[in-house]
Amino acid sequence: MIKENYLDVQKKVVAACERAGRDPKEVTLIAVSKTKPVSMIEELLPLGVVDFGENKPQELKEKYEVLPKDLKWHMIGHLQRNKVKYIIDKACMIHSLESLRLAETIQSEAEKHQVIMPVLIEVNAAQEESKFGLTLDETPAFIEQVAAFPNLRVSGLMTIAPFVENPEDNRVHFQNLYNLFIDIKQRNIDNVSMCNLSMGMTNDYEVAIEEGATMVRVGTGIFGARSYPV
């Protein structure tokens, strides 16, 4: 069933790209495997799936250690500074940079491990009180500061849109983030590439793609509902 789910999501990604006049190769589908066992991830490997998303550093580290080394692990959850060391040489990208203190820790750990870590700046596009992330207005100045860290590469923006019944309700947030993304890209800031826009999840990834997402993070739509330990 997991394979079928993945292929179904992939078809919807292609259809959304076609509606928007985009090349499907521009969009990376990240299978969000948080809380899911290694056996479920292994079901997808014969399809050539390599991009997986995890919320917890410890879980990412554990899965990295037992699965093939050619997989790409995206750290998509809120990252505490004391957990950076677990994933700095294992994650292909951190999607949730939202404070200078976290940037400093990533820089320090990346320097120790002699790696360059691509990061996305987390933007709270809908300004929800319960969510992490910078406001749209705060983001450009923050990026200028982060660009000074030699072992970080600012590669774009990320947002977690509100959970809504109707995905259309999030279109405005995706549009606002895309406009900011283009604005920052046009500034040509050193050490800032602005090539990734990570937005859209199971509920609204098709709308996100229509509005310019280059990465969508789909968990429930592929692996089914998550079961959290009590």
TrEMBL record:
<feature type="domain" description="Alanine racemase N-terminal">
    <location>
        <begin position="26"/>
        <end position="226"/>
    </location>
</feature>
<feature type="modified residue" description="N6-(pyridoxal phosphate)lysine">
    <location>
        <position position="34"/>
    </location>
</feature>
<dbReference type="InterPro" id="IPR029066">
    <property type="entry name" value="PLP-binding_barrel"/>
</dbReference>
<comment type="function">
    <text>Pyridoxal 5'-phosphate (PLP)-binding protein, which is involved in PLP homeostasis.</text>
</comment>
<dbReference type="InterPro" id="IPR011078">
    <property type="entry name" value="PyrdxlP_homeostasis"/>
</dbReference>
<comment type="similarity">
    <text>Belongs to the pyridoxal phosphate-binding protein YggS/PROSC family.</text>
</comment>
<dbReference type="Pfam" id="PF01168">
    <property type="entry name" value="Ala_racemase_N"/>
</dbReference>
<protein>
    <recommendedName>
        <fullName>Pyridoxal phosphate homeostasis protein</fullName>
    </recommendedName>
</protein>
<dbReference type="InterPro" id="IPR001608">
    <property type="entry name" value="Ala_racemase_N"/>
</dbReference>
<keyword id="KW-0663">Pyridoxal phosphate</keyword>
